Every structure is written in structure tokens, then in C-alpha cells.
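comment on this one:
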Amino acid sequence: MVSIDPQTGQLAGASIQSQTTQALHNCASVLQAAGCTLDDVAMVTVLLAHPDDFAGMNEAYAAVFATDPPARAVARLGPELPGVLVSIALTAHVGR
């Protein structure tokens, strides 16, 4: 999931913080449609276009997963996608 704002169809800003926040919001929307919440997430994979953005991504990530965050892996995003700084994949338990 990337940080495309469903209202505008555009990326949610040029900062790693704004893109991380929107990508997580998009993930939460998909989870909600499946009857889950972020509390049901067991694993998060974060792909960064620029590894130097880790601190900014982590800041926004910690605001969403403030307590008891799920397991997480962070790696470099392979392809260069214009304007995309972060891509996030979640694994959640449905029907716990």
C-alpha cells in the first residue's frame, strides 16, 4: 500500500512522515473493510525508497502503533516509483 489519498488520487505529500501516515491510513481502511483493525495486525513490512528516511518513517509509524506495535521488517523498495517514498504491507488475523 502506498500513500495515495483516495480523495484526491495523489500522493499524500512529499515528506516521509505524511506518506507513512497516509499509507498506514490506507491499510487501516482495507482492514476495516475486512472487519479488522490495526490491533489485529501481526506483521508489518515497510519498504523505503531511501533508507535515510528511516527516522522520519519511524516517527510517523510510532504515532499509529503507539503501544504494543506488531513485528516489523524494513527493507529498501526495489523499483523507483516517481514520488513514492514508502510502501507498506500488513498481515492481520481475521476473526480472532
